[in-house]
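Q: Here's a chain of 448 amino acids. Please give me its 3D structure as tokens.
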Amino acid sequence: MLDKHYGASRQVDRAAIAAVLRQFAEPLPAFDSAAFGEMFDRYADARVVLIGEASHGTSDFYRARAAITQRLIERHGFSIVAVEADWPDAGHVDKYVRGLAPSAWKRHIFSRFPTWMWRNAEVKAFAHWLHRYNHQRASEDRVEFRGLDVYSMRNSIHEVLHYLDSVDPQLAQEARRRYGCLTPWQDDPALYGHFVERNGLMPCEPQVVEQLNVMLAKQLAGLIQDDEGFFNATQNARVVRAAEQYYRAVYRGSTASWNLRDRHMFDTLRALLEHRGPQAKAVVWAHNSHIGNAAATEMGWKGQFNIGQLCRSAYGRDAVLIGMSTDRGHVAAADDWDAEMLIKAVRPSRPDSWEHQFLEAGVPASLTDWRDPQRAELRTVLSATLLERAIGVIYRPTTERDSHYFEAVLAEQFDAMLWFEQTQAVKALALPKNEELEAEDETFPFGV
């Protein structure tokens, strides 16, 4: 398969992989130690550092990612944290961390399935740290916390209308007319996609695109001020456009909808960097399956791409792709879509997996970096094709091989790997008592 889809496959002695990993693995100190952060100074020259995770429910991954990000912000001028979350919900956290709102976690945010992915103690702790850090800085220098994802059709429509009501009531009225095509479906956008693709319902794409174009034209003509409010509203309008396309694409196959989603993530990241200015640098938080170069995996060989691959193409060495993985432990995940969160035991990794090779290397917590051009020997052994595990928000141990493993060439997928032999689940935060779960903006079929 590798010869056909990715180029010449290297013949690697698999028995030698663990020994080479042991040679190059750098043991990790405690997350809160200065020595931990110093290990990531090597990535200070990057424009974008993308930090992955092998599951959406592992505390160790969230805490490591936060500690790395703090170092990149404090010492190396990174000014954007862009996460695999909805733009409007992340926007409430952004207002809090930049001192524009008194609170975030008492609000109705991150309340669609899976709530624990961002509504957890680990993310809250990072947000509090960022709030304190930003408090010492001028408003224009404060670090942003932004969402990249595509699922917030209803909330994004609301945000656009709320903004236009405040700056141009006539344009707001026109926007309500255009978005009226989607209004019957905004609480169940997957049903909209079904009726368009299966029952011949006329799509709402022309109206949605027109609304975005009208807003941009008004701004270019000087009729709307190009400020933070306009940027936020425009990004929400782009989310609505992408969501309309996404929910139709779901019914044309998983590759089309996956690619549309990751293209939107990449376009949003580029918009954030452009909005911030030529010196802007960003840290991206997302699942390994989004930030590792898809071209080096079974995903890419089947026609899918992701934000990591797009960043590699756009920024070259200025994009650093860091994966994270584990052998065993516990994870917050559900049995099925829209089911309750459970704390589930993670099975020990398969013998034919990359995870097992790191386990055999015998370093319980490590950073292994092959971005350095001098590490040719390490890159050579990582050029084998082995299985890699991906746990999203659903974990099905009994069908783990088919549900959670895919083939990957690690040397090309990432620049480095953080390894934690045994891990614990995130600490989910309850919703405010007077709030209930939002109606679903359906994220199926992707649990990552």
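Q: Can you summarize the key feature?
A: The chain has two domains: 2-78+281-423, 150-261.
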